[in-house]
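Bench log, entry 3. Co-assembly request; chain sequences pasted below exactly as received.
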Amino acid sequence: MGTLNELFDPDRVAVVGATAREGAVGRAVTSNLLDDFDGVTVPVNPNYDEVLGTPCVGEVADADADVAVIVVPPAIVLDAIEACGAAGIRNVVVITAGFGETGGDGAARERRLAEIADEYDLNLVGPNSLGIMSTPSGMNATFGPENALPGGLSFMSQSGAFVTAVLDWANDNGIGFKDVVSLGNKAVLDETDFVDHWGDDEETDVIIGYLEGIEDGREFIDTARETSQDTPIVAVKSGRTSAGAQAASSHTGTLAGSDKAYEAGLDQAGVIRAESVDELFDAAGILGSQPLPDTDSVAIVTNAGGPGVMATDAVGDADLDMASFTSETSDALRDSMPAEANIHNPVDVIGDADVERFREALEITVADDNVGAALVLAAPTATISFDDLADAISEVSEEMDAPVAACLMGGDRTREPTQQLQAKGIPCYFDPARGIESLATLAQYRDIKEREYEAPMSFDVDRERAREILETVRDRDDNRLGVEAMELLDTYGIPTPAGEIVDSPERAAAVAADIDGDVVMKIVSPDILHKSDIGGVAVGVGDDDVADTYEDLITRARNYQPDATVLGVQVQEMVDLDNGVETIVGMNRDPQFGPLLMFGLGGIFVEVMEDTTFRVAPVSEPEARTMTEEIQSAPLLRGARGRDPVDVDAVVETIGRLSQLVTDFPAILELDINPLVALPDDDGGTNAAAVDVRLTVDPEELEA
Amino acid sequence: MTEPTTTLVTATGEHTGKTAITVALARLAADRDRSVGYMKPKGTRLQSNVGKTLDQDPMLAREVLGLDAEMHQMEPIVYSPTFVEGAIRGTEDAGALRDRIREEFDELAADRDQMFVEGGGRWTTGGVIDLTDVDVAEALDARVVLVAEYGSPNDLDEVLAAADDFGDRLAGVVFNKVSDDAFKSLDQDGIPFLESKGITVLGAIPHEKDLAGVTVGELADELGAELLTDAPTDAFVERFLVGAMGGDEALRYFRRARDAAVITGGDRADVQTAALDASGVACLVLTGGHRPSGAVLGKAADAGKPVLAVNTDTVTAIDRAEGIVRGGRTRDARTVDRMAELLEANVDIDALI
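Structure output for the full assembly:
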């Protein structure tokens, strides 16, 4: 698509469908532009000679514009867009609604719009968009009631209404923006395009977004990773809860997707996720104005003991630490503070403190190398004026490298000092927890900035044979495959125990005889999901009992589910579960992010325990390794209660191979290996065994 | 005047495809320039519980074969629950019934080369009036074709029992709706076994999606549903999935299926979008009279999937819908044509015609 510079910084903007008619969107857009835009606004409407005192042209081709804003009714909107393309205008903002969000006809119109945009290579925002803004030139190409104040935040939103609400609030609170985009239906330009553009935009300090869905998760991750190395990205992604997901589907037709996929995807993308509007702007505010902390240690300076404890709790909640002061700092504090003051963290300068005592305590504290960030927390007393305190905090902050947040707990008296602090880029809250959370956001972004991304794991595999096995799903009644497709794992080098699927007791006995030791026998049927529940699994079967056990399993399957298709019985080498750890490795294809890998504690209780972690594939080696360290039962892998540690490398490699398999074959919608038994490291042996597999394959995708 | 050859087509159970096979055989015979007639002595596929009702099978035969017989001739006994109640109370005379069947048959058979008689629901149906298909075959001096399904060797018990009862009258067995999985077992083990018992197997017809499911359009008609989209309605539906769980689980569930229709409340936008995303879902059926949001309809249009709306609640809609698929496609000429093709390809027709 190329850069979007011209979209945000045009010389001439045409408004197609401009009008002076009261209450019309065309009027609002035209007047917004005429009021504030530095460049030239050209109304386009064959029905008028002039609009709002400005000469009007009949066709967009006569406007000689760089950007066209389209507000004509749905019946003629496609023609209008085509006219822009034909006139050589490459940037188009379609405000008109009545597309995919309204039903079948609208969806057809939207498809046609995308075709036209493709034909003329248009940078098209919307349709069904509130419009766009860019403050350096004063361009307000929206029909909202207010323009934005200038600032360093670039904001994209999938909801136009949210944009107007935010602007209203932001203007009241002195918060400014660089660019604002109402994404609309995202028929052409989507969130990834803007993340890409703003990543290269020097004047954008922080990117913020409200999203209900992401069009192409993998592209978004790759693009956001690059951008977030220099520019923080904070997003609210709604549809988080199942009720919310319903609402999102109803609003935009978005399949909200699993929240776990979003958590994993946004984290991997280096995007900071805000759960609410307050969090979004708290984060954006501090990221735009404060330096990043060198360490995760926080110092709290307060005149109120109780609130000091609350703030300390918040530090614990936020995964930060309370800084330990050096002896120099402690000495300096002891010397300058009264005897009753508490000189350990949180530093309590006590209730009779005046501004000078506060200032001194603050200066000494932040000079300590151990202190990464500071929170100044004050309750109203007779001895202190919040205005003066605000001044003091601003002055000290200017001299230091560490970030500072302030908490002035009070009512009216905090209003002016708060604004004053915010004007100096120091966030100020009532609630100490919010103050600490915003400092934590800085630490989070520091970690994101320091990340180094590695290439995904990749191995030598037999893609052709894998495809053949996946194709067997076409012979099925539905899209599922089970252990009968276990060879699929072999094609990608995922270790499996020796075994075979047989359809007679004699063959079963023969296979068992070839396997050392006792065997495990399982009924093979894609229709029977929980084999152990129906007695469909026999463990520790000696060679002599194999034939009889075969009969037992078949009979039980018939009794339990007479309609089930039984493909046979699997006779498999027994894996040492006593010394191994049962894990589960799986994948579910998220409609937005693509293949979501899962790793966790396995076995038959996996659905109850839910001790699992997720990443969007393809994953690099460090990502896979971190998955094995993140689950709560990770200590089991390292050996607990006298057991040997298992070969974690083998597990990491299996995750990597699975990652490659699901990336190579988009037709695989779901795949579970449960259990993948992780075994102690036995040099030379295979130290992991995929004992069972279940997958869902979309035969239509396989053709691709 | 020569006696026509009479073939009675009976079955081991309901919904085995007996009707389609009977009418298709008759049509194949007609194609070979024989004059054919059709009769279904015991009407069993009834539209209502009592009295003179419409068993669609004779009507279909009349249409396809161009017959001008009267319904009461083709279907002299209406084997309704009310009739059976009466029979066990003694209001019916088995002998008189048998005579009636014989009379109607003779009239229909006049000037025909071949008569094709369709049995009741199962070969044992009619026992209370001594008119099982065994009795009917005897009365009409018919040779018998037994239609059976085959899922596993266990199904052969029924076939053996029927063969035993029909004895020498049994011309052979036709297996129908045999799934790919079962075919091997039937071919390698089932058929040789039966032949070793002296039972002729005339052929085995594979399971056919065309005949097994209904199209979305037919489903809409049968359900009395309103179509909310312009998408094509010729996709097949063989099973129904109920969408009552959360969107994420719903997606997982729907993805595993094929040729499925998803039934859910009109207000469940998350389930609807999940259904539209799954490639194996052929259409969406919305219940409760709610209208879905414009965004969902837009998505349906993009996916090319039809959306049907019914006013009933989900449970009722499911029952009806399953009944439609289970009962097989509404019999029509198309079904008969397809069955005729399958018979020619898989069954020894010459032995029968």
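DSSP finds 15 helices and 15 strands in chain B. The mean pLDDT of chain B is 87.
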